[in-house]
Every structure is written in structure tokens, then in C-alpha cells.
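Field log, afternoon session.

UNIT: design team B
ACTIVITY: writing a sequence onto a fixed backbone
BACKBONE:
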């Protein structure tokens, strides 16, 4: 950013001029369109697709993006700077291509309208992927044709942790969420968690257990007790049908197959299962992502490993990175939005410790794991697990203000980041969130305006 000029531009009364291809993006400024608008939106393919350049003088604003997506990120910056824009030039582009937030719909369901409202908040911080954890022991949240009991039984009343989070997305609701996100340059990454975290599957279809015996629904928050059966052909018929449905519904390039915490799957069964399942997304035209336990298996060359544990090192992940597999960095002690902020947090868990705003901001993804340097990192994610959540207000309390912190970790190169600068800028969001009715944690680490 060049030194700020004395001139400033007042947005009030300004109009926007945009070529036809940017009219929809221009709409996100909430200003009238006019051929001679003082705010000009421009495409320059010489810039990187997500890069943008903002030139602000006393009489005009020029926002140039490498693509409509780059212009859209510039629009988010303009909205944050307003209503009086300081004169000067901003040249901005992301550190990582994959900047993600995860929402767990299985432990507590959130409706399509609630998910779309969440997307609107995420894009303000230039998040460009929404990972939906659609299935777990306590519930199954996506309609799958041919397998009606998944949602009739395991998406119905009494599902979710404490039985308090029922519901599921129909095919058309899921497609609506995907399209809404895509219109905001957010790629939905669907996760079907397996071979563990499948009690809801086995309640609905007991033939997918080892002995075919009925299984009781579970609404507690234990993990690691359920598993698909590697030695049964029925398992793969189920997995292929589900992944085909999800792939057909999802225009984005990724399918997440989970793979975490398979504590009741013998290691040789786990590897045998993954040997069959890891190639399926590729055959469906998608790139497979799994939680980092999948690094115990032989990985397709383009498989992406998502590191989630708080430990300082993981040999299998280091080996996968050395083999050329890309890594998404989401260590629980830095990026898990469901960890308590401190001992006084009314919501959240603490198995990875407390995650203050500063902890979520003050770290370098490229220094986090031995053997996983800048060039192997696809991006950074902030997961939000929903065991303790019962409402959208709960989601927002844990998301804000830590999501903006992780989003800046993912967007801004390390040399451009500074905790004191961040906390000063974050403080300005307090009144904005309050005015918008957005519940957030008034962390004592921030001098809220
Ligand atoms: C995880 O937190 N079990 C991925």
C-alpha cells in the first residue's frame, strides 16, 4: 500500500460503472449503476485471478481485478474502508488459494437459509471455500436418492448432539446453497465422513454393520466407536452411490471423505478401505481431500491431506508432503473455532486448549509442521464443530472474531501481518457487528470501539 494521500473519497451519492461481466459483482456494493459512475470496476487479466488493485483519489475510485473474483474481494475491502475512503493505492492478493471455513451440520443442523447467511459473513473476510461436514455419528444431513432412510431416520427428530439438531438438506436445498456460494466466489466442499463417524448410517441401514444387527441412535459426543466394514462389498456399493450423488451435485473440484478418528477400525482394514475409496473421487472427476489420518494409506498423487491435530509434528503428513501431496493446515490449537476462547467461554470444547484471538492470529502455517513448507500448503481452514451449538447466535459467538484472524492468516503473507495492527483493525468491527445484530465474543484482547 502506498502512503495515504490527503484526498479522500466519500461513497455517499456515488454510482458504479462496470462492464456487463462485472454487473453482478457491482451489485454487492449496494450503489446505483451508471455509465459514468465515479467508482469504476475494471478487469485486467494481467493480474492474478484473485488479485485486485484499488486507486482512490478525491474524485474517483478505480477497482481493478484479475477476474470477477478479484474484483469481488476488492469490493469487500471497499465496504470495509467506507463510507469515507482514504486516498491512496492498495495492491492486494492472497497468500493461499484455499481459504476455508468448515461448518458441522451433523452434530447440529443449520438450514439452507442459515448457511447462506453464514456465507455472506465469511466472504467479507475473503474466505473462498465452505467445507460442509454433512455426516457423523449423530446425524446424516444430505438427501441421497436410493438411500431414503439416511435422512428419514438419521436426519429426523431426535438427531444431533442431545437430540437437539434435527434436519437435512434436500437435493434442491443443497444445490441452492452451492449456487448461492458460487455467486459469491465460494466453493462448497462436501464431506462424507468415513469409515468412522458412521453410527447414523448404521442406524438407518444395519446391513452396513459387521453382523447386520440393529444399531441404536447416539446423541452423545463420543468419537471413534463406529466403522464401516472394509471386508463387505455392501460397504463399497453404499460409498460409491453416495459419492456419485454428491459429486454430481457439486460443481467444485473437491470431495472430502473424512477418514478421521477411526479408533475402532483395525489399521489394516482402514488401509484396505481407503485403497478402495480414495480413487473414487478421481473417477468422478473430483480431487479427494481427507483428514490427515489418510496419510497412513497409499495416496493418489493429487490427494489433499488436512492436518487437524494440535501436536507439533506428524511423520505421515511430512512423508505425504515429501511425496508431493498438498496439505490444508487446520491445527485445532490455532484454527478450531469450537475451542473455548478462555475458561469463561460459555460454549465450545477445550480438548486442544483454549484458543484466544491472538492464538488464532499469531502463527505461521508454513512453520507449523516439519516437512510441510509454503510450497506444499494448499491453504488454511477454520473448522467449526457443532457439539455445543444450538443456534446461529452460537455459531457467530465462536466465529467472531476468530474467523477474521484465521482468514488473515490465509490471505496475507507472513511479512505483512502484525498482531497489534490486526487487533486495532478488528476493533472497528465491534460497532458494525453490533449494528447488524451479529453476536460476537467481546474478547478482552481487543480494545473494542
Ligand atoms: C477432527 O477434528 N476429528 C477432524
Amino acid at each position: 500500500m502506498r502512503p495515504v494521500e490527503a484526498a479522500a473519497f466519500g461513497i455517499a451519492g456515488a454510482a458504479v460503472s462496470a462492464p456487463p461481466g462485472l454487473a453482478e459483482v457491482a451489485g454487492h456494493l449496494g450503489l446505483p449503476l451508471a455509465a459514468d459512475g465515479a467508482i469504476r470496476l475494471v478487469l485486467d487479466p494481467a493480474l492474478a485471478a484473485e488479485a485486485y488493485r484499488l486507486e482512490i483519489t478525491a474524485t474517483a475510485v478505480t477497482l481493478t481485478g484479475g477476474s470477477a473474483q478479484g474484483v469481488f474481494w476488492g469490493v469487500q475491502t471497499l465496504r470495509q474502508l467506507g463510507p469515507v475512503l482514504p486516498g491512496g493505492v492498495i495492491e492486494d492478493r492472497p497468500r493461499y488459494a484455499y481459504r476455508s471455513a468448515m461448518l458441522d451440520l451433523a452434530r447440529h443442523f443449520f438450514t439452507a437459509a442459515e448457511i447462506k447467511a453464514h456465507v455472506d459473513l465469511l466472504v467479507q473476510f475473503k474466505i473462498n471455500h465452505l467445507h460442509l461436514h454433512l455426516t457423523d455419528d449423530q446425524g446424516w444431513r444430505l438427501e441421497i436418492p436410493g438411500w431414503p432412510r439416511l435422512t428419514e431416520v438419521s436426519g429426523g427428530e431426535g438427531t444431533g448432539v442431545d437430540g437437539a439438531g434435527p434436519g437435512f438438506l434436500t437435493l434442491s436445498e443443497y444445490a441452492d446453497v452451492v449456487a448461492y456460494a458460487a455467486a459469491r466466489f465460494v466453493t462448497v466442499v462436501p464431506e462424507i465422513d468415513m469409515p468412522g463417524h458412521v453410527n447414523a448410517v448404521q442406524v438407518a441401514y444395519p446391513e452396513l454393520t459387521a453382523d447386520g444387527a440393529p444399531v441404536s441412535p447416539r446423541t452423545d459426543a463420543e468419537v471413534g466407536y463406529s466403522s464401516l466394514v472394509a471386508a463387505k462389498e455392501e460397504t463399497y456399493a453404499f460409498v460409491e452411490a453416495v459419492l456419485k450423488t454428491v459429486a454430481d451435485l457439486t460443481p467444485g473440484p473437491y470431495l472430502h471423505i473424512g477418514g478421521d478418528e477411526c479408533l475402532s477400525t483395525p489399521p489394516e482394514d482402514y488401509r484396505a478401505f481407503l485403497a478402495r475409496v480414495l480413487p473414487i473421487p478421481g473417477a468422478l472427476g473430483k480431487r479427494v481431500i481427507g483428514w490427515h489420518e489418510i496419510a497412513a494409506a497409499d495416496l493418489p498423487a493429487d490427494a489433499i491431506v488436512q492436518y487437524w491435530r494440535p501436536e507439533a509434528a506428524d511423520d505421515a503428513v511430512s512423508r505425504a508432503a515429501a511425496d508431493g501431496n498438498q496439505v490444508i493446515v487446520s491445527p485445532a490449537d490455532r484454527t478450531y473455532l469450537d475451542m473455548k476462547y478462555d475458561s469463561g467461554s460459555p460454549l465450545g470444547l477445550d480438548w486442544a486448549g483454549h484458543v484466544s484471538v491472538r492464538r488464532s492470529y499469531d502463527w505461521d502455517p508454513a512453520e507449523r509442521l516439519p516437512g510441510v513448507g509454503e510450497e506444499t500448503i494448499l491453504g488454511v481452514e477454520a473448522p467449526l464443530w457443532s457439539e455445543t451449538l444450538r443456534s446461529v447466535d452460537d455459531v457467530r459467538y465462536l466465529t467472531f472474531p476468530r474467523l477474521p484472524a484465521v482468514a488473515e492468516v490465509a490471505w496475507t503473507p507472513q511479512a505483512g501481518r502484525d498482531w497489534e495492527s490486526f487487533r486495532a483493525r478488528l476493533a472497528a468491527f465491534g460497532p458494525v457487528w453490533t449494528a447488524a445484530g451479529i453476536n460476537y465474543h467481546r474478547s478482552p484482547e481487543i480494545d473494542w470501539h
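LOG NOTE: The pocket of acetamide is lined by residues 260-261, 291, 308 (CB under 6 Å).
NEXT ACTIVITY: expression trials, pending approval
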